[in-house]
TrEMBL record:
Belongs to the diaminopimelate epimerase family. The lineage of its organism: Bacteria, Pseudomonadati, Bacteroidota, Flavobacteriia, Flavobacteriales. Its EC number is 5.1.1.7. It is an enzyme of class 5 (isomerase). This is Diaminopimelate epimerase. It catalyses: (2S,6S)-2,6-diaminopimelate = meso-2,6-diaminopimelate.
Amino acid sequence: MKQTFYKYQGTGNDFVMIDNRLLTFDKNDTKYVRTLCNRRFGIGADGLILLEPHNEYDFKMVYFNADGNESSMCGNGGRCIVAFAKFLGIIENATTFEAIDGLHRAKIESHSVQLQMQDVPRLEQFESHVFLNTGSPHHVQLQENLAELQVKETGSRIRYGAPYHESGSNVNFVSKISDAIFSVRTYERGVEDETLSCGTGVTAVALAMNFIGETTRNHITLNTQGGTLEVAFKNKDEGYTDIWLIGPAVQVFKGEF
Ligand SMILES: N[C@@H](CCC[C@H](N)C(=O)O)C(=O)O
């Protein structure tokens, strides 16, 4: 039987999106998911997302990286699935849904989707980077000459090196433009390459920059290779709460396989 899919992108982080409310998609077929995400032999995407039914909330999000493995939270994917749920008529402009890291609230305002992220209680500062988990693990480091950086090579070395090794971390390279604006390039674990944008990544960058005193702001603009995102948050005694990731989420096309 043919399977309908949709393609979505959020600031260039792109996803195959499937309505799996009938639970017919084989989630254990890693090779199949990997092929669908392959840009030469498949549809092509940074990840694949299933929208599934939920007993209490509007829907459930199941996220796979382009390598075919189910992974931790995807912020841009979370914003895209909210737009998809509205397209399917499951929600109007506000929702609560479940993802692998717990419940998320979200709001839609014209083409912008605002996604509430989990609180971040703990950030670790090292000599040249900050490590934190915003639903996915993120290494954040300030970087000179960001435009010239070989993100795939440098990111891969950090992702597979100590202390991350096989389980890995996403790696974000950051350049400060002003107190309120930072540029970010991200190497994504599970894609094993630079992506044009990473939602949990820019969230990590905004919090990390506040944590190390590079900004005093609580609403930060992040320039990514694929467009602009915003992150708003509140400081707690330890860590951060009321964290929102804000930006566009666009349906690109529909197809079947
Ligand atoms: N693109 C995502 C991050 C997806 C998860 C990541 N690749 C991982 O496995 O940690 C985002 O927008 O947050």
